[in-house]
Amino acid sequence: MDSSVARIADYASALRFAELPAAVVHDCKRRVIDTLGCGLGAFDAEPSRIARNIALRASTAKGACILGTAHRTLPELAAFANGVMARYLDGNDTYPGGGGHPSDVIAPVFAVADAIGANGRTAISAITLAYEIYHNLFQGACMREHGMDHVIYTAVGSAVGAAKVLGLNREQIANAVSLAVTPNLALQATRRGNLSMWKGCAAGNAARNGVFAALLAAEGMTGPEQAIEGSHGLRELVGKFELTPFGGNGRPFRIAEANLKYFLSEYHSQSPITAALQLHSQVAVEDIEAVTIHTYWFTWSEIGSGPEKWHPTTRETADHSLPFIIAAVLIDGRFSDEIFSPERLRDARIHQLADKISVKEDAQFSQQFPRAVPCRIEITTKSGQRRTAAVEYPRGHVKNPMTDDEVSAKFRALAGRMLPKTRVDRALDRLWQLDRATDLRAIFETLQIGEEPR
User: Fold this and answer.
1) pLDDT at position 1, please?
2) What is the mean pLDDT of residues 150-175?
3) Is residue 132 part of a domain?
4) Which of 39, 75, 118, 242 could form a disulfide with 64 if both were Cys (CB 3.0 to 4.6 A apart)?
5) Same domain for 176 and 59?
6) What range does the domain containing 228 cover?
7) Given 366, 391, 416, which residue is the final one in a domain?
8) Average pLDDT value for residue range 362-383
């Protein structure tokens, strides 16, 4: 095996729950709560139904639970269905700058842990490990710069996390890594132009493939020996990179560096949304002559350029359309993901105000990113007055973190779309005590929609 794969396998083999600081264990539970809340909130979305229907085609008593149901399916299919649900609302955590959403590794780890009856501490260790692998690959190889999608980090992180739950040895973990890297180089076309349902499903697919890689390795399947460093390996494709030291032995764990989202919208809209909410009370919508959003290059490139960003026609495009989002917030005086509904996508008032919005790169802001995610919105009224609001660290950023109560409130709001309050409260209680759980069955039972758990 090449040295990069060997380092991953060595680290994964050695990591133990006892080595995790209490703060890391707690932060992992916050991510799990946030992710499962997002999944329940998206339960009725069409892509969620499609993914779930595929997973429902298989049934096995020793399988993994499909979130919101009592049905047990193959763990790789549960990882897909649950991963699509968790990701679809675009409400889960992120590494800014093309790093995608590391909590995409939670659904696959939970699927494997549920299938084999692993305890909560095993799941927490595997999730923390998967975040480490995910972050290290992102820092070493930015796939976006090479026209490829960030979901390869999910595939590899999921494979290693699943392998940890399965108790695979060093050689098997190395094969799982190779089997995740080699066939899972997805295209960035997923996130360009008018966005399709696949935008919210690509990570669930990568999670499925990561679990499948680990299951193959567990059965003795081998992968290419030089998947990263060898001829025609990942390095030849994206350029030479080295893995940095992993968390532990006094080094920080990277799970704490992922930013949570206070709003259910693309991450680089979080600061602009916050600024727009500050401005709403200062100017009447009918008095707005022009709105200028000053931001860093990545925001402009990702959600502030291209004609479809002003007049989106799909939910997937809308939650990546900064002019549309800010127009809706200025009109409503609040943010809700209801603005991405078919009715609001046709709201003439939003489109008329969006036409008055321009998005401009600020070179100084680009230099500050990704340490900060700065934004300044300037509104010019019809009488020539100007109103300005600026934000550097939106709520949920590691420098402006959400409290535990806010994480719980977000879960209550999302899970409450599908579950009664008593069930939501019971689920939260169990999730905050994940490290004491003997298995995940009781958690999934509590989250079953329309079922009364034991």
Assistant:
1) 85
2) 98
3) yes
4) 75
5) yes
6) 3-257
7) 391
8) 97
pTM as predicted: 0.96
Q: What are the tokens at 14?
A: 């050695």
Domain co-membership, 366 together with 277: yes
Q: Which of 108-122, 185-199, 377-391 has the lowest mean pLDDT?
A: 185-199
Sheet containing strand 386-391, edge to edge, reads 357-361, 288-295, 375-381, 386-391
Query: What percent of the chain has pLDDT above 70?
Result: 99
Could you say which of 191, 225, 257 is where a domain stops? 257
Mind listing the pLDDT tens digit for each residue in 206-252?
999 999 999 999 999 999 999 999 999 999 999 999 999 999 999 99
Q: Flag whether 432 is in a domain.
A: no
H and E: helices and strands count for the chain: 20, 6
Residue 309 lies in a domain: yes
What integer pLDDT is reported at residue 452 of this predicted model?
54
Q: Say how far apart CA 375 and CA 348 lie, in whole Å.
A: 26
Instruction: Clarify whether residues 274 and 211 are in a common domain.
Output: no
Residue 329 maps to which CATH number?
3.30.1330.120
User: Domain tally for the chain?
Assistant: 2
